[in-house]
Amino acid sequence: MYEEIPHHNKKTIKKKRPRLMAVVNDSCTGCEACIPFCPVDCIDHEPPAQSTGAIIPPVRIRWHECIGCQICARVCDGMAWNAIDMISIDQFETDFGIQVGNQLHPPEETLQEAVAADTSG
Q1: How far is CA 61 from CA 3, 44, 87, 90, in A?
Q2: What is the mean pLDDT of residues 105-111?
Q3: Which contacts qualify for 52-57: CB closer than 8 Å, 24 or more apart?
Q4: What is the pLDDT of residues 33-86, one digit of tens each?
Q5: Cα–Cα distance for residue pair 20/78, rounded to 1 Å
Q6: Strands (E), the chain
Q7: How do the residues of the chain divide into helix, strand and coil, expressed in percent and rounded to 5?
Q8: What is the pLDDT of residue 50?
Q9: Domain extents for the chain?
Q10: Long-range residue pairs from 74-78, CB within 8 A, at least 24 positions apart, any chain
């Protein structure tokens, strides 16, 4: 009755360069309140290898997918944690040494990590 649903790649490509970028700060508790509100599904937990040893790892924002909509920061602010800062894209590039473009995966992400992320969801 139903046709087979095609594979959906959760990673997205930005339509244009954002003016702002969401950055998770040290206040993040890993509560996941922001995750369901992200319109491009670019928020997830840090991989265990990058986690600081916390029982619940903090969330991360995949900068190469973030569109700078500010929804995650507003949700976090509404929950009184203020764990997501919105900074200008120029400041983000300067502070983190990253050039934001329209790549599907960040340059430092290995192919194996990209495939694992695509098949886990």
Answers
A1: 33, 7, 13, 17
A2: 50
A3: 54/30, 56/29, 56/30, 56/31, 57/30
A4: 999 999 999 999 877 666 566 678 889 999 888 999 999 999 999 988 899 999
A5: 19
A6: 20-24, 43-45, 59-61, 84-88
A7: 25, 15, 60
A8: 60
A9: 20-120
A10: 75/33, 75/34, 75/37, 76/33, 76/34
Minimal CA–CA distance to 59: which of 67, 49, 47, 70?
47
**Quick one: tokens of 100?**
């934001």
Q: What is the pLDDT of residues 88-101, one digit of tens each?
A: 999 999 998 888 87
Give the rounded distance of the alpha carbon of 86 from its chain centre. Answer: 13
At 79, list the tokens: 């929950």
CATH of 20-120, one of 3.40.640.10, 2.60.40.1190, 3.40.1280.10, 3.30.70.20: 3.30.70.20
Question: What's the 3-state SS for 40-66?
Answer: CCCEEECCHHHCCCCCCCCEEECCCCC
